TrEMBL record:
Signal peptide: none annotated. This is O-fucosyltransferase family protein. Keywords: Carbohydrate metabolism, Fucose metabolism, Glycoprotein, Glycosyltransferase, Membrane, Signal-anchor, Transferase, Transmembrane, Transmembrane helix. Belongs to the glycosyltransferase GT106 family. It is a single-pass type II membrane protein. InterPro entries: FucosylTrfase_pln, GDP-Fuc_O-FucTrfase. One of its GO terms (biological process) is fucose metabolic process. It is found in: Membrane. One of its GO terms (molecular function) is glycosyltransferase activity.
Length: 386
C-alpha cells in the first residue's frame, strides 16, 4: 500500500497479488504482429505495476495490411491466462457493469523522458476504473519493481503460445524444411525501402515503381546526406547484398534457407541466384492453407520457425528480430547473427570490392559475434529464472 493506493512495493512478495484491484486495463496494440506482441508484454508489466486487472488486448492493424485476425486467432487464450496466474489477473470477459462501456483511452506511446506510469496513468485508472493504453515506446522497464518485471517477462517468454492450429502448421513447416537450415529474415519490401528514405540503383522497373508508390510524400535522401545516411546503416540490404555477405561468411551455396519475409519482397532473384535451396511459407504450405491466412498468422509462423531453426540471421533489427533473438537466447540457441548494414555501406563507400570486401565483412561479423554484439542478446532484463 502506498498513499492508500493498491500498488505493491515490496519486491519480496513479487508473486503475491493484492486482494483488490485498482481497475481494468486493456492494451491497444498497433502495427505488425511482433510490435503488438511487444506492446502486449509491456502492457502486462504496466497492469501489474498499477495493480490492475488485464483485459484481453485489442489488435489494431492498418487497413492496408488487409488484416482482421485478433489475439485469439494467433495465441492460445486459455494458456495465456493460466500462465499469468499469480503474476497478473487476466479476464476473458468483463463484468456486466463494465462490459457495456468503452474504456477511456490513455495514449502513452509518444511520452518521453522521465515518464512514470504510477504518477501519470494511475490517476486515470482510479478515476475511470476502465482504461485502454498504448504503451510508451521509450519507457525504462529496468526501473520497474521486481514484481512488474516478473510479470512482463513471464508474458514475453512463457505465456504466449500459438493456437493449436497454428502450432500444428508451424510444426509441419519445420518438418518439411531440409535440415540443418538457416532461417533468414530479409527486409526488402517497398514500404520498408520507402520508410528508410534510401535510394537504390539497378533495381527492376517493377521494384522501382513499387517503391515509388509506397513513398508518397517521403522523399529519398540525395547527395552527401544520402551517403551519410547509408553509412550509418540506415538502408535495408538488398537480396543481392545479403547473398554477398552470406558468401563472405562462408555460408555454402547449397545451405537450406528458410526465408522469413512478407509477400512483397523485391529482387528475390538476387539471393536465389546464389543460394538455390531457399524455401518459404508459400512454397511449403498448400495453396489453400496459405491463401486462407492473414498477415498476423503468417508472421506467427515465421516467428515459430525462426526460434526453432538451427541458426538465425537477419538483415535488420526490428521487432521481429528482437523477439526472435531474445527467445533463442532464452532457449539456449545462440547461433544468431545480425548482418551489418553499416559495415557493408562503409566498406563499399571506401571502394572495397571482391575478395578484399569479403575479408573485411568476415572480420567485422566474426568480431561482433565473438564479442556478443551480433549474437542473441535478449532485449529484456529477465534473469530467465522466473
Amino acid at each position: 500500500m502506498a498513499g492508500g493506493l493498491l500498488v505493491a512495493r515490496d519486491t519480496r512478495d513479487r508473486d503475491a497479488l493484492p486482494a483488490e484491484r485498482n481497475g481494468y486495463i486493456r492494451v491497444d496494440c498497433y502495427g505488425g504482429l511482433n510490435q503488438m506482441r511487444r506492446d502486449l508484454c509491456d502492457g502486462v508489466g504496466i497492469a501489474r505495476l498499477l495493480n490492475a486487472t488485464l483485459v484481453l488486448p485489442k489488435f489494431e492493424v492498418a487497413a492496408y495490411w488487409n488484416e482482421s485476425s485478433g489475439f485469439a486467432d494467433v495465441f492460445d487464450v486459455d494458456y495465456f491466462i493460466e500462465q499469468m496466474n499469480g503474476f497478473v489477473e487476466v479476464l476473458k470477459e468483463l463484468p456486466a457493469e463494465i462490459a457495456s462501456k468503452e474504456p477511456v483511452h490513455v495514449d502513452c506511446s509518444k511520452r518521453k523522458g522521465q515518464f512514470d506510469y504510477v504518477e501519470s496513468i494511475l490517476p486515470s485508472l482510479l478515476e475511470h476504473h476502465y482504461i485502454s493504453i498504448t504503451p510508451a515506446m521509450s519507457q525504462r522497464r529496468d526501473r520497474y519493481p521486481l514484481y512488474a518485471k516478473a510479470a512482463l517477462c513471464q508474458a514475453c517468454y512463457s505465456a504466449l503460445r500459438l493456437t493449436r492450429a497454428l502450432e500444428k502448421k508451424g510444426s509441419e513447416l519445420l518438418q518439411a524444411i531440409p535440415k540443418p537450415f538457416l532461417s533468414l529474415h530479409l527486409r526488402f519490401e517497398p514500404d520498408m525501402v520507402a520508410y528508410s528514405q534510401c535510394e537504390y540503383f539497378g533495381l527492376s522497373l517493377a521494384s522501382m515503381e513499387a517503391i515509388k508508390a509506397a513513398r508518397g510524400d517521403r522523399k529519398p535522401w540525395t547527395g552527401e546526406a544520402a551517403r551519410i545516411w547509408r553509412n550509418r546503416g540506415k538502408c535495408p540490404l538488398t537480396p543481392n547484398e545479403t547473398a554477398f555477405i552470406l558468401q563472405s561468411l562462408s555460408i555454402p551455396a547449397n545451405t537450406s534457407i528458410y526465408l522469413a519475409a512478407g509477400d512483397g519482397l523485391m529482387e528475390l532473384q538476387g539471393l536465389t541466384s546464389s543460394y538455390t535451396n531457399v524455401v518459404t511459407k508459400s512454397t511449403l504450405l498448400s495453396n489453400e492453407d496459405y491463401t486462407s491466412m492473414h498477415g498476423n498468422t503468417k508472421a506467427a509462423l515465421d516467428y515459430y520457425v525462426a526460434i526453432n531453426s538451427d541458426s538465425y540471421m537477419a538483415t535488420y533489427f526490428g521487432n521481429m528480430d528482437k523477439m526472435v533473438a531474445a527467445m533463442r537466447a532464452f532457449k539456449g540457441m545462440y547461433k544468431t547473427l545480425f548482418l551489418s548494414r553499416r559495415a557493408f555501406a562503409e566498406f563499399t563507400s571506401k571502394g572495397l570490392k571482391g575478395k578484399e570486401l569479403m575479408e573485411a565483412l568476415w572480420k567485422v561479423h566474426n568480431d561482433d559475434f565473438v564479442m556478443g554484439r551480433g549474437s542473441a542478446l535478449p532485449d529484456c532484463f529477465c534473469d530467465f529464472k522466473l
